[in-house]
């Protein structure tokens, strides 16, 4: 079982930021990534629909015999994790919310923590609850930043448009000289792509928590604890599955994964 692949799923290509962090940390593991591009975005859909889609994606990956399941999508993690853990047995399931919340609580001195995410993630309150569970004295301000998703997919990660939109979302939270948060959680797969514009908007002192990085650390620890860490010394293989649009997945996904993806590498699947 320890040499079985790790399953990773997301609503589309955004979760490739998480896959990138995972392959960097666990280069000898095999991965199967599933992007539900036919039904993207999840961030604007109702919790019931996201939970149903997420369970279907998780069940599809379970059929490949994965040893562990990573929910790379923040929106899917926020509503889908309890449903998935109920239905998928004997496979550890790891979402991105808990690792991100833990990292934010560890990074913040003041306990004043901001979260930016999709509408669905903010509305569901999973980050707010996870942070308050770990640090009951924290003050959490979560706000949606949906245009960041489109910017990242269009490749407008830097420059005046990205800066204007970052200022629009972040200045109201970080503009005050007193009482501003000291930590910002990037609670969406796409937001690490805009790290520079976000940094410009919040200034140099704010701790920025990238949930992709923190999730990779958490998956590594969980695999070791469960005795499921791979034993191979050669480089792992990454399989890419999508529910629609191999060309677009390859073109947009290459930027998120930080390596060229050929459309031929992308296998189309139905859920
Ligand atoms: N992957 C989603 C998330 O992290 C962003 C894109 C979407 O709305 O589907 O919340």
Structure description:
The chain has 271 residues and is of the alpha/beta class. The protein has two domains: 6-95 and 213-268, Rossmann fold, CATH 3.40.50; 98-211, 3-Layer(aba) Sandwich (Rossmann fold), CATH 3.40.50. 46% of the residues lie in helices and 17% in strands. It has a six-stranded parallel beta sheet, with helices on both faces. A four-stranded parallel beta sheet has the order 6-5-7-8. The radius of gyration is 18 Å and the shape is globular. It starts with 5 loop residues before the first strand and ends with a strand. The model has no long low-confidence stretch (mean pLDDT 96). Bound molecules: D-glutamic acid (DGL). Residues 10-12, 14, 40-43, 73-75, 118, 121, 149, 188-190 line the site of D-glutamic acid. The site of D-glutamic acid (DGL) has 17 residues, from helix 3.
- Count of DSSP strands: 10
Distance between the termini: 24 Å
Low-confidence runs: none
Multimeric status of the protein: single chain
Key traits:
single chain; 271 residues; alpha/beta; Rossmann fold; 2 domains; six-stranded parallel β-sheet; 46% helix; globular; binds D-glutamic acid
Question: How do you describe this structure in short?
Answer:
The protein has 271 residues and is an alpha/beta fold. It has helices spanning 16-25, 47-62, 74-87, 97-107, 119-124, 126-134, 147-154, 160-174, 195-202, 211-225, 246-257; strands spanning 6-10, 31-35, 68-71, 93-95, 112-117, 139-144, 183-187, 207-210, 238-242, 266-268.
């Amino acid at each position: 079982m320890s040499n079985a692949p790790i399953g990773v799923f997301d609503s589309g290509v955004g979760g490739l930021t998480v896959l990138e962090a995972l392959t960097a940390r666990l280069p000898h593991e095999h991965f199967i990534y599933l992007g539900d591009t036919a039904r993207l975005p999840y961030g604007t859909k109702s919790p019931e629909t996201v939970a149903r889609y997420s369970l279907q994606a998780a069940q599809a990956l379970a059929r490949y015999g994965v040893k562990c399941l990573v929910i790379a999508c923040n929106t899917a993690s926020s509503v889908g994790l309890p449903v998935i853990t109920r239905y998928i047995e004997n496979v550890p399931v790891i979402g991105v919310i808990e690792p991100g919340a833990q990292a934010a609580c560890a990074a913040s001195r003041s306990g004043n923590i901001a979260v930016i995410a999709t509408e669905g993630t903010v509305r569901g309150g999973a980050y707010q609850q996870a942070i308050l569970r770990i640090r009951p004295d924290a003050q959490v301000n979560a706000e949606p930043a949906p245009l960041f998703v489109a910017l990242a997919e269009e490749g407008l990660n830097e420059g005046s448009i990205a800066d204007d939109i970052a200022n629009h979302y972040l200045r109201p939270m970080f503009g005050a000289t007193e009482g501003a948060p000291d930590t910002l959680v990037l609670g969406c797969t796409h937001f690490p792509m805009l790290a520079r514009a976000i940094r410009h908007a919040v200034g140099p002192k704010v701790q920025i928590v990238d949930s992709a990085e923190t999730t990779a650390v958490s998956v590594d620890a969980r695999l070791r604890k469960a005795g499921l860490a791979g034993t191979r010394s050669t480089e792992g293989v990454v399989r890419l599955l999508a529910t629609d649009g191999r060309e677009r997945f390859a073109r947009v996904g290459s930027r998120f994964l930080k390596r060229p993806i050929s459309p031929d590498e992308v296998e189309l699947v139905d859920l």
